[in-house]
Design a protein that fits this description.
By secondary structure, the chain is mainly alpha-helical. The protein is about 50% helix and about 0% strand. Helix 1 packs across helix 4. The N and C termini lie close together (about 10 Å).
């Protein structure tokens, strides 16, 4: 996950921050070892590990009283992370940059 920068556009900043929060949740709340953390942790896999992490994170946020209007933010961040990780395998070609993550 890239470092935050003041020159980073707001949407990128929010995606990076949300990814970091989800990874922090995976480590601090779920007890996932640091060696297993990365962007791929946030992306659903065939075994649905990423989906369960996202669902647990959303449920945990609800319990903490986070505003319902921000519930879509982690989902958007996971989608952006997936696009970044798998843009090489995408059938969409000719884009100059990938999904605005970096």
């Amino acid at each position: 996950v890239p470092a935050l920068s003041l020159s980073m556009p707001v949407s990128k900043h929010h995606h990076v921050l949300t990814c970091r929060r989800m990874l922090g949740f995976a480590h601090n709340v779920r007890g996932m070892p640091l060696e297993q953390l990365g962007l791929a942790t946030l992306v659903p896999s065939p075994g649905r590990e990423g989906v369960s992490l996202l669902m647990e994170y959303q449920h945990w946020r609800q319990q903490k009283g986070v505003a319902a209007r921000s519930a879509v933010q982690p989902i958007k961040a996971a989608i952006v992370a997936a696009r970044y990780l798998y843009h090489e395998q995408s059938s969409v070609r000719g884009q100059s940059h990938c999904c605005g993550f970096f």
